[in-house]
Structures are given as structure tokens and as C-alpha cells.
Amino acid sequence: MKRLLLLIMILFTCGCTNNAYVYSNIDDNIFCNVKVNNSNREIINLLKQEKYFICNNLEKYLDYSILNTEDISTIVKEVNVGLYRDYYKDVVESDLSKDYLVLVNKYYYLKDNYVPNDLENISTDCSVGINSYLRHEARLEFEKLCQDAKKDDINIYNLSAYRSYEKQNKIYNNKVKTKDVALIDSVSARPGHSEHQTGLTVDINLLSKQFDKTNEYYWMINNSYKYGFILRYPMDKEKLTGYDYEPWHYRYVGRDVALAIHSEDITFDEYYAYYIDNN
């Protein structure tokens, strides 16, 4: 009995780590199912100290580090969001059970017949766009955001919210007719890969990078997370999100998650990989 109690205490003490992983093997020569040797021991020791280290990704981190010269932190971030494979390769259907936290990007897609069942029209006081539908909770929070902004003499309004698969297909294909596919892919989602199809996204005020020179932009940066919205494609995070900087593109994820993303200064792709898909 004493031995059992001692073992439980040791396991409890050793199990309290900062990272969201569990040792898969107590053997000192095995870590996260990867054999540790003289050639990889140093980098593994560095990797496991990273805040967003994911045990199941260890082998991918090691492979990626051989082909890339980025620092350890960048390797972890880029592997976590899927950059060890090409965009639109081996895509996976988005997990709709995640509800307001469903991930849609260049690796995750929505079927062509997916339409949210709780789309509601945004109040005309907060929308001038022709695509003015959001899912119920996102609509309520966006309208509250819009109304509270007005109290600060800030006018926030929707230009484009929900878009169907068919609508995105037309938008994308019309752009591809006139410009290089690689260029279009950096600024426009392929059909099925657009966040707008989730009914959780709004493009606001001005579809231009000049929007970040406005008072409305700064108000959103400082306040949008309080209503559950995040800037989905931030500046200097283009490689992680797969898209150019879009200061007008906001995504609803709920207040708690938006606060976490804002506080940790990470993208939704990073948050999803570490806090959702990893648990």
C-alpha cells in the first residue's frame, strides 16, 4: 500500500507541466513516442520548453526543422497550424461539432451544401451590405458591439457577412479569370474554405488596408474581443493564417476564446491547434 501511495504521489508531482501533453513513455530514451538520441536530444529539449508544444507533433517538428532555418518557437507555431504540408493538400472536413469554434482555412473545408441553421438578418442600423446574415449568437454580439461603439462616436457596420458556397465560388472564379491563382489564393478563399460560409464572419466598414488608419479600426482592436470577435488575419501573421493582412475581417469565436486570443496575441489557427484539436 505504501508503495502504491508513493507511486501516486510521484506521478502527480511529475504530471504537473506547463504544456498540454502527457509523457507517452517513462523510458528516458523515448519521448512522445520518438526515440531520443544524441542527434535529436538537444532540439527535443528546446522544443518541449515551448508553450505551444504538442506532443503528437514532435516528429513533425523534427522533420520540419531539417528543412527550415526558423527558430524553435516559429517551428512549433508553423507545424501546429499545418505548414509542414502544402495549402489545399490533404484537406479535412471542418468539425461542425465545434460549433462557434469551427475551423475553416486552407486545410479545413465546409461541404458545398452546408448552411448554418440559425442565420439571422443583422439590424440595418449595423449593416449596409447585401450579405447581412450572421448566426444567432454572433448577430446579437455584433449588434451590441455596433451599438456600444456608437456611444463612443464610432460607427461600425457590416459590409459582408454570410456567403454561401455558390457565392464564394463565383467570387473566387471571377478573380482567377484575371489574375494569377497564387496571388488570388493569398487574398481570397476557395469555395468551401471561406469563413464567410460559417455565418460567423463580418467584413466591416472599408475593404482596404487603409482601414487601419481610422478611429474605427483602433476601436475594434481595443474592444472587439469583449464581444467575442477577433481580427482573423492580422498583420505579420500572414504565413500562419495563409492570407494577406485584412484589417476589416472579423470572426466570432465567443467572448472567452476571443479574450484568450487577444491576450496571447495568437491567431485562431494557433488557438485551435493547441487548445481545441489537442484536447
Number of helices: 11
* Spatial order of the strands forming the largest sheet: 6-8-9-11-10
Tell me the total number of β-strands: 11
State the CATH architecture of the largest domain.
2-Layer Sandwich
| Fraction in beta strands | 5-15%
* CATH domain fold name of the largest domain: Muramoyl-pentapeptide Carboxypeptidase, domain 2
Mean pLDDT over the full residue set: 91
Helix percent reads: 25-40%
Radius of gyration: 21 Å
Largest sheet, in brief, is: 5 strands, mixed
Please describe what this structure looks like.
With 279 residues, the protein is of the alpha+beta class. It folds into 2 domains: 2-80, no CATH class; 92-276, Muramoyl-pentapeptide Carboxypeptidase, domain 2 (2-Layer Sandwich). The protein is 37% helix and 14% strand. Strand 1 (30-31) and strand 2 (34-35) form a beta hairpin. Helix 3 packs across helix 4 (72-80). The chain is globular and about 65 Å long.
Question: What is the compact description of this entry?
Answer:
The chain is of the alpha+beta class and 279 residues long.
Sequence-ordered SSE layout with sheet pairings:
Elements: H1 2-14, E1 30-31, E2 34-35, H2 41-47, H3 58-67, H4 72-80, E3 92-93, E4 108-109, E5 119-121, E6 127-131, E7 133-135, H5 136-151, E8 158-160, H6 165-176, H7 181-185, E9 201-204, H8 215-223, E10 229-233, H9 238-241, E11 246-252, H10 255-264, H11 268-276
Parallel strand pairs: 3-4, 6-8
Antiparallel strand pairs: 1-2, 5-7, 8-9, 9-11, 10-11
Helix pairs in contact: 3-4
